[in-house]
Specification:
This protein has 10 helices and 11 strands. By secondary structure, the chain is α/β, with parallel strands linked by helices.
Length: 323
């Protein structure tokens, strides 16, 4: 496996002092070589945290002021810098509240195992709701997630994207896909996933809504979920909105018993140093190669099925017509 592979990550942040340092420590320990961060007008300690990390040489940051949120423009700029100035082989497009979790090995190992024809991959996300009652800091209190995370309308939440720089020059809003990709997407191998800790207690939700008031009506807008929560905030009903998002003890027990919720503390254990053991490189390479071979086999089968179904329908129609 190529140990010289360079992996970069991009982020746009605003007022993320409660989680940013943890996020950076985590990804730098998980095989990310460089994190490029655009700070969009933070007023808390976010800028100071970035300055501390920048002195170590593995974090670069830029400051943007104003009121217009230009995420795609800023991420595209960081992607270009990662490619041209740092020779990045892969760039992961993340957020401060997202932790990328490899199936095995490190994020560098996972990226190195992606077969060469593929230029980018979609990475599934899992939402981790906060407990309704509790004062423990992140991530100790958030180790329960939905088995299948969905939006309010019941649809699965959008994945994020990781790419070779040559695959495209601009991720779309939210970093969910690439504008006009020139290389093919990889099949879903499940070799990496994202753990999403969006709402970290009631005070965290209150901060998000205040921030949304400042920036959400302009620029690239807000998600439908954030818009609904913002309406509750404006109506003085944020505690009730938080109760709908958070999990009570009863809901947690019932959800674990039914299988709708699962216990998943991999981020917590990694940060505590409990799952950082090194695997044998050849064993790891073989495991990831087998994962991708299986994913490609399933993808070929799906594509073949899509072609065969119309052909079977056509043959049946001809048989009826000629019969």
């Amino acid at each position: 496996m190529d140990r010289e592979l360079t992996v970069a990550m991009t982020m746009v942040v605003r007022d993320e002092e409660d989680i940013l340092a943890t996020n950076l420590d985590y990804h730098l320990a998980q095989g990310v070589d460089l994190v490029l961060v655009t700070d969009f007008g933070s007023t808390d300690r976010t800028s100071a945290i970035l300055a501390d990390f920048a002195r170590g040489g593995r974090v670069r940051c830029w400051r943007e002021e104003g009121t217009e949120f230009k995420q795609s423009v800023w991420v595209s700029r960081m992607l270009k810098i990662a490619r041209d100035e740092h020779g990045a082989d892969w760039v992961l497009h993340g957020d401060a509240d997202e932790f990328w979790v490899p199936l095995a090995g490190s994020l560098r190992d996972v990226c190195a195992a992606v077969p060469e024809p593929y230029g980018y991959m979609y990475v599934r996300r899992h939402n981790f709701p906060p407990p309704l009652v509790g004062s423990e800091p992140f991530p100790e209190q958030m180790t329960i997630r939905h088995r299948i995370s969905t939006y309010m309308d019941g649809g699965p939440i959008h994945p994020k994207v990781a790419q070779r720089p040559a695959a495209g020059t601009m991720p779309r809003r939210g970093n969910h896909s690439i504008v006009d990709p020139v290389l093919p997407a990889a099949p879903d191998a499940g070799s990496v996933e994202i753990h999403h800790f969006q709402v970290r207690g009631y005070e965290g939700l209150l901060r998000r809504m205040r921030r949304a008031e400042e920036t959400g009506e302009i620029g690239q807008g807000l998600s439908p979920e954030t818009q609904a929560t913002l309406r509750s905030y404006r109506a003085g009903e944020l505690p009730a909105a938080y109760a709908r998002i958070a999990l009570s003890d009863e809901q947690t027990v019932a959800g674990l018993e039914s299988g709708e919720l699962v216990h998943d503390d991999r981020v917590k254990r990694f940060l505590a140093g409990h799952i950082r053991e090194q695997r044998d490189p050849l064993e790891l390479e073989g495991l990831l190669a087998a994962v991708w071979a299986h994913a490609e086999k399933l993808d070929r089968r799906r594509r073949t099925t899509r072609w065969r179904a119309p052909l079977r329908a056509l043959a049946s129609h001809r048989a009826r017509t000629l019969g």
